[in-house]
Amino acid sequence: MSSAKNSLTGLILEYDxxxxxxxxxxxxxxxxxxxKGNLEVQLDLHYTEREELSEEEILDEGFTVNDxxxxxxxxxQVWINPIQExxxxxxxxxxxxxxxxxxLTPQGHGKxxxxxxxxxxxxWQLMAQDLIxxxxxxxxxxxxxxxxxxxxxxERAWDCSLTVHFSHRQVVxxxxxxxxxxxxxxxxxxxxxxxxxxxxxxxxKEAPGNKRxxxxxxxxxxWHELGKGVVNIDPSFDAVGKIKSRLDELIES
Length: 253
Known about the structure:
By secondary structure, the chain is of the alpha+beta class. It has helices at 3-7, 55-60, 80-89, 121-138, 184-194, 239-252, and strands at residues 10-16, 26-33, 39-47, 69-75, 92-93, 101-108, 111-112, 117-118, 145-152, 157-165, 170-175, 178-182, 198-199, 213-217, 223-225, 230-231.
């Protein structure tokens, strides 16, 4: 364990979406404190520049008229080690983030240090998103993400699901009533794969198919057939084929 990881007892993450237009543009401040062993968090999330949009324009994009959110309270301490590990492995840059990005203020032994700009911006933004999702689940603002899928071949059908619990950093795979926990990083990579292709909702159905194939419901109640209603966006990257392969591995393991 590095000395930096040893001395780190808290972290403040500040994010600005930069050039992203409203109603998506937002800023947040996420303060994390684990100096007493448990994890205490404070989130202040604010959507910006919405005054130039009508209420209808905001609603049409899937938002509400007030999506700002504040929270102060505990979060499962299972998140402490991943935060420390990411901080310990991060590189820092002097690059300006005026056009959007995340900055960190590490805290150790009760005092704040200087602001740091991580060069691995995407990793920290994903970490922040995961932590915010964990907060939403903890306070029951949102339910855990659940993805259902069915595989049909000439002999039978398999019905399975993946439930991602950000609140306690756990992924549960359910295969016809038998459950097991999956490695978090493996499952998150699978989630990224699942949301990579293009989903054609005009071809979706409200129930899974019974003909040979693989079907998926990404949590919204609509079933898509992989390879027909779900197609690759980038011809050089076979996301659909990789999803099929990963799901086959889960069913057979």
